[in-house]
Predict the structure of Carbohydrate sulfotransferase.
Amino acid sequence: MLSGECSSTSRLLDPLCGRRRLVVSAMTLPCTFYCSLWFLLLLGAGSLLLLVHLQDLSDTLQQQQNPGAVLVVAPGWPVQKEQSSDSAALVGFDLGGVFPGALRFEMSSAPILPSPGPGQPLAFQRSAHKASSTSENQQAKSPRPTPCDVHSVEDRQLQGMAQTQASRRRLLREVCAKYQPGATERPVSRRQVSRVYVEDRSSLLYCEVPKAGCSNWKRVLMVLGGSANSTRSIAHDDAHYANQLRRLDGYDQEGVAERLCSHTKLLFVREPFERLVSAFRDKFESPNSYYHPVFGRPIISRYRANASRYALRTGAGVTFREFVQYLLDVRRPVGMDIHWEPVSQLCSPCLLRYDFIGRFESLKEEANFLLRSIGAPSNLTFPDFKDRNPKAERTSSTIAQRYFQQLNSTERQRAYDFYYMDYLMFNYPKPYKDLY
Ligand SMILES: *[C@@H]1O[C@H](CO)[C@@H](O)[C@H](O)[C@H]1NC(C)=O
Ligand SMILES: *[C@@H]1O[C@H](CO)[C@@H](O)[C@H](O)[C@H]1NC(C)=O
Ligand SMILES: *[C@@H]1O[C@H](CO)[C@@H](O)[C@H](O)[C@H]1NC(C)=O
Ligand SMILES: *[C@@H]1O[C@H](CO)[C@@H](O)[C@H](O)[C@H]1NC(C)=O
């Protein structure tokens, strides 16, 4: 077992592999094969969705369809600029330039994938009827009722939550437009959907954000998908290592494109500093057979003067300040990890255009709102198991502040800079007044 939580499979896919393999497969295309590149322009809810479908007419070539290739073009924000622009060059319009004459471009009017019309409601508002697991009498309330529909306190709450969602999506769109203008035509790589879990029965895509309720979300997805009867019966390890959930990067490009179009895309975020402290406490304050040797040892040997031999050998006892020094070091002695990687990178929010952006701070209410909106069985409610160190107090803002007191103002500022996009995209206020 490599790591404790939410990382049952860490990022195994080298983003380069996808590109390299794509180049190779494209190079081997003999000119005699009829190949066509389908461009599909889809107008989504106010957004332009461009899907590139590379279709081989030859059966043999279809067999070779490349699992590592760049998948589709969706509206978005590529996190790694160089990688995305490279992949754009490979799969996008430049492909003709790379292999002149090898590919025939066609504009297709026949939709290959189910396309939401311009006026159609967002996925999370319309998917109730599609969930085969739900019964008819559990038709979800419209999350955005017109004023006339508001009869009860409950309706008003639902309306408020739907408005909150709309304003979170709007803000994210604005931040994306400001910081990555024009990025919406870039392709989605396999790596960028590698944290996204698929639940087809209720048409959900969930991007896991560790330390923001992901174990319980996996339990819910398992129940929705029918691999468990109740969230209660699912042990922590099973939620992560035996969850029978598929991830989006495991589908072929058409499967990915289809699901990005049709499914409700779901993301839960958390106050970045609190998430960071939560990750630190979880991975470094109690025994951990992965994080201590793999991260603790290099961190101590790099940032602690006069470290004891015991500390150097075990990697136990990393302090929060040492951990932050590692995080902010441009020449980190050991790489990143999904538990503290910014959500803006983990889940590619500009690229994938999430329909539902929930907050850990009101996890249960918002998660249940979503479950009712998609027409989940009424006895399925969001659980609140605390999986990691159940006896330790949950990381609160007070606890997070205690840890940040170990840092001086420069370090605090740099930590804020590190998570700045998360603060911006998800509208969390500056945690300290003196930050800029
Ligand atoms: C769910 O419960 C039913 C009957 O209680 C049982 O037959 C079935 O195996 C259970 N399914 C799972 C996935 O545990
Ligand atoms: C919900 O009710 C159904 C049918 O009564 C039952 O099979 C299922 O296990 C229940 N699910 C949960 C999560 O309790
Ligand atoms: C490291 O140990 C040496 C010798 O014991 C001591 O002189 C020095 O001040 C220590 N340095 C730190 C940073 O503790
Ligand atoms: C804060 O700590 C860093 C070491 O992490 C040090 O380089 C810097 O000078 C300190 N800044 C202040 C304002 O004390």
Notes: Residues 157-425 form one domain.
